[in-house]
Amino acid sequence: FINCTEAECEEFSRKVDNDEIEEEKIIKTFKYFSNKDDYSREEAIKLIKNVVLIRHRVNYYRTDIITYCYRTILNVAKYVNDYGSSNFNILYALCMTQFNEDESNFRDSARREIIYDIDSRFDCLVNEEIEDAEDLQYTFNELLKVNRRCYHYLY
Questions:
Q1: Where is 105: in which H helix or E strand?
Q2: Engineering a disulfide at 89: which of 23, 80, 95, 96 sits with its beta carbon 3.0 to 4.6 angstroms away?
Q3: Could you give the count of Cα atoms lying within 13 Å of 28 in the half-sphere of its Cβ?
Q4: What is the rounded CA–CA span in Å between residue 77 and residue 73?
Q5: Model pTM?
Q6: Cβ atoms within 10 A of the Cβ of 107, count?
């Protein structure tokens, strides 16, 4: 999942939905990525983004797969930063995959599913996470203002 393209993530989700991959193999794959303990920061960020894309594409009746997606995301989040909660690290990772280098706009490859996830995660922050994420939220809101395709997330 680390080096998968978005198209490959969507194809994996389609195969899961159509029962083209044995459930045992799916579970084994998620457990492998969830239990691995030597991710670089960049690998963790890519993996979180790809698993979020898979989670969004897998049909909601596949709660087993969605659960494995969340478990993997939570276990990998600790490799994003040395500080902050898992919730903050997931939010940070997703922002880094969608903001361009100078944080002046969303990347051309930004996905609505990820933007939606970022927006939802800001609402789930608690206590010190809110302070830690102030700069991210400010940047996110500013980018929403300049990017018409994501403008509807502003309220």
A1: none
A2: 80
A3: 5
A4: 6
A5: 0.91
A6: 13
Going 58 to 110 to 79 to 130, the CA torsion angle's sign is: negative
Residue 42, helix vs strand vs coil: helix
- Give the list of residues 6+ apart from residue 92 with CB closer than 8 angstroms, or none: 80, 81, 84, 133, 136
Amino acid identity for residue 155 in this structure: Y
Rounded distance between C-alpha atoms, residue 74 and residue 69, angstroms: 9
Token reading at 56: 């969004």
> How far is residue 14 from each of residues 21, 36, 78, measured CA to CA in Å?
10, 25, 29
Distance CA 57, CA 54 (A): 5
Task: List the pLDDT tens digit at each of the 155 positions of the chain.
Answer: 889 999 999 999 999 999 999 999 999 999 999 999 999 999 999 999 999 999 999 988 889 999 999 999 999 999 998 888 899 999 999 999 999 999 998 999 999 899 999 999 999 898 889 988 999 999 999 998 887 776 666 55
